[in-house]
Structure formats: C-alpha cells, structure tokens
Automatic annotation (TrEMBL):
Sequence ranges assigned to domain Response regulatory in this UniProt record: 4-122
Residue ranges constituting the HTH luxR-type domain according to the UniProt record: 150-215
The name this protein goes by in its record: Response regulator transcription factor
Annotated SUPFAM superfamilies: C-terminal effector domain of the bipartite response regulators (SSF46894), CheY-like (SSF52172)
Record's keyword terms, sorted: DNA-binding, Phosphoprotein, Transcription, Transcription regulation
Organism: Streptomyces tubbatahanensis
InterPro entries: CheY-like_superfamily, NreC/VraR/RcsB-like_REC, Sig_transdc_resp-reg_C-effctor, Sig_transdc_resp-reg_receiver, Tscrpt_reg_LuxR_C, WalR-like
Pfam families with a match to the protein in the record: GerE, Response_reg
PTM sites of type 4-aspartylphosphate: 55
C-alpha cells in the first residue's frame, strides 16, 4: 500500500529535499508541502495523510500547536506525526511527545533512516525509544505530588489496564508485558488499545507521558500505587 505523506518545514530547501526523497521512494506519495503550522493544519484536513513530517520550530503557528490541532480534528485513523528537530533532548521534543507525536528525527538524519522511520510509523510503531523518553520526562515533566490521590482521568481504567499502562511507561514491550502479567500478547494489545481510547491518546509515547504526569510512574524508576515493577529495558 502507498503511504501518503505531508511534509511541513518553513525552510524551503529542507522541505523540498525531503519531499523529493519521498517521491523517489517506492510506496511513498507526497500529498502536500506546508511552510507553516496553519498551512499544515489546512492540508492535513484536505488530504488526510497517513504520516506527517512536522518541523517543530516555525514562525507563527509552531509544529507543536499544529500537531495538537491536527490530532484533535482528525477522525480515525489519525495521521502519524513524526517531528523534525535540530536537538533530540529539549522542551520542544517533550512537548511534541506530549501532544501525540509518534517519534522524532534529527534534521541531519540520513535518507535511508528517514525513509525507514516514515515506513515504521505508518505501520504503527513509535520512534521514541524508552531511554530517550525517560530522559525527556526526567528533564521536563512537571513535579507530581505523590501524596495526592490518582487523577480522575485514570479512574476510567480497569485495574488490568492500569497495570498495562504502568508497564508501558516503564519501557516494556508488549511481549515483555505479556510475560510479566502472564497474559497473551493479544490481550496486552487489547488492554492498551482500550486505555488509549478511554484517555483519548494518539500514541504510545503520549500514554507514557500521561503515566508520568499522573504520578502512576515516577522518574528514576519508582511508581505510585502499584505492585508491578516499573520495567526493565527503559
């Protein structure tokens, strides 16, 4: 199947170069090019791309705001947003993760890595590695009062859904979660999909951020109110 991509960057040479690379790749179709966040929102609504390569820092409407607006307005399936950035660890990348982006690429990423990343997120993968996610959260997540009761947002979840969310936030893969909870991998996926639907989350990375910001899991490996480990491999 063809992956339909929208390219967003205020620098014309970068935008044109990325678009040309995608057009030359088999299975890729560039449905539009946007030079700012407002144009990105408009073109996303018009063309409904599968993947959006989104610059973060642009004049006017930023890539973060554009990401939020696009995901809020999108029906299912939502586009997969892959942000383009100069620095891998800064508050903009954290904000993109929080807004629902599925991953990020540095602007000096090589052509094959970029094409592989677009293909990966189109298939539903997330390109925020557990280690990078943990470092971003430790640097930029707001402090949480651990003595406070769990937020109401988590009250919609069943106990097993909370377990799965906690282990996802700890960096475990679906097979590792299945082994830890002694359930099948398909059951893990079902619990995670229901959790994301209940909490209106667009990506696995966004679920990780919510788990930390709610105090379900804490930076440094601790977690609130549970019996399962925060997770190896993070």
């Amino acid at each position: 199947m063809t992956t339909r991509v929208l390219v967003v960057d205020d620098q014309v040479l970068i935008r044109a170069g990325v678009a040309a690379l995608l057009r030359a790749a088999p299975g890729m179709e560039v449905v539009g090019e946007a030079s700012d966040g407002d144009e990105a929102v408009s073109l996303a609504a018009e063309h409904r791309p599968d993947v959006i390569l989104m610059d973060i820092r642009m004049p006017g409407t930023s890539g973060i705001t554009a990401t939020e607006r696009i995901l809020e307005a999108s029906g299912e399936p939502r586009p997969r947003i892959l942000v383009l950035t100069t620095f891998d660890l800064d508050e903009y990348v954290y904000a993109a993760l929080r807004a629902g982006a599925c991953g990020f690429l540095l602007k000096d990423t090589g052509p094959q890595r970029l094409l592989a990343a677009v293909a990966a997120v189109a298939e539903g993968d997330t390109l925020f590695s557990p280690s990078v996610t943990r470092r971003l959260i430790e640097a930029y997540a707001p402090a949480v009062d651990q003595s406070a009761p769990p937020p109401e947002t988590l009250e919609a979840l069943t106990g097993r859904e909370v377990d799965v969310l906690r282990l996802v936030a700890g960096g475990l893969s679906n097979p590792e979660i299945a082994e830890t909870l002694v359930i099948s991998e398909s059951t893990v996926k079902t619990h995670l999909n229901r959790t994301m639907a209940k909490l209106d989350l667009g990506s696995r990375a966004q679920a990780v951020v919510l788990a930390y910001e709610s105090g379900l899991v804490t930076p440094g490996g601790g977690h609130a109110g549970g019996t399962h480990p925060a997770g190896a491999g993070a």
